Amino acid sequence: MDRIKLPNTPSIRRMPTYLHKLIKLRDEGEVFVSTTLVAEYMNLDPIIVRKDFALTGLPGMPGVGYKTGELINAIRHFLGWDRECSACLVGGGSLGSALLGYEEFTDYGMRIVALFDSDPDKIGRFVHGHEIFDVRRMKKMVRLLKPDFAILCVPSSCAQMVADELVASGVKAFWNFANVCLQMPDGIVVQREVIAGGFALLSAKMLKGKGAAKGALNGVADCD
Amino acid sequence: MDRIKLPNTPSIRRMPTYLHKLIKLRDEGEVFVSTTLVAEYMNLDPIIVRKDFALTGLPGMPGVGYKTGELINAIRHFLGWDRECSACLVGGGSLGSALLGYEEFTDYGMRIVALFDSDPDKIGRFVHGHEIFDVRRMKKMVRLLKPDFAILCVPSSCAQMVADELVASGVKAFWNFANVCLQMPDGIVVQREVIAGGFALLSAKMLKGKGAAKGALNGVADCD
DNA sequence: TAGATTGTTAATCGATTAACAATC
DNA sequence: TAGATTGTTAATCGATTAACAATC
Question: What is d(CA A196, CA A179) in angstroms, rounded to the nearest whole number?
């Protein structure tokens, strides 16, 4: 019931984008990188980037920037992505497949160690090199494999049930893509992805855009 | 280059979750709903929910709550989801399929009017009832269909190119799932989804969890 | 009336932004 | 030295939280 809150949430959300861009820059031979450059790419104020980089504890070089390679490592360490971490994925539908095909996760130290589904047509098939196991084998396999967390890509109607089963099997953290808020005991970590949340923001931006166009006639820059 | 910022971003992000839960409650016959109930479900402070509901302009009834149906409509209106809105989707891979299969979007007034891909194996096939068209027909079709926005589910390496083409065809807004920050002219709305951002938060929560466990021995509830 | 809930106003907290000295 | 950038400290802004009167 305790609502522990995580500090620097916006900064943490930005980290993977920094990381991805930095890796690309490093691969292109950039030994140094400045917050100016990164900020321009992400359309952020440079000081935001500087503060975010400061969170990793890595000092930069005034007048020059940061050593690209060191910064990459610092961000990885900050996120705990410098250690291997294992996950099991429940739900082999298109969203599950998309996540399995997302190659960046390997860079982030995440390894999917088991994939489950309840659909007899899917069981035994392979998705991106991962065999789909019968969800009825989940409890036993999870107890054995002890994944660090579980990814839920199941229909919302059975997400709670699946999560309960996984908790009973020792899973302590969830990345939940189902459209429900899981009711979990204390100490269980849940990160829920609300795909429609992004659409809501897009819609609000579009509404605001239309409003601004009207407002512009009156010289009003912002509306809301 | 103007960095217009959207107010109430966190509230807007929560709206679809409220909406989904409220629709469920209404379908179960709940005529009234209180912020207490919704807050408990989402593990939020009730006052957060109250403030969010207030944004829609709908008054509640002290001692009772809100009329479920009216609240649903108010949220829909607040987000602009009470009007039909059309989109084209580029990229018929597993992520694109997942989005096409996401039934809630229909409730939100969003209609996908065209689906494009460059893969000859995919062109002509159907995904969730939508035919995949050759991306080479995109420009002409988009000019004709005039979708309100485009959804990008293409590899990051070609996202910028596809977006540029769409802008040239009159598209004014993007929901970008590719792992790049699009460089767009002023007046173009972009909402980027960073799937790894959620994973970063999950990782940070797990790290904090471990830290707290250690800290707990010293009676320290929070760490960092 | 008692209990529950809304709505409003003020207080707190944390993230963003500004300013500027220090450094390469 | 001049230009660019970092790092730090303070100011601002906005979201969350607290307190409580008003209402059903």
Answer: 9
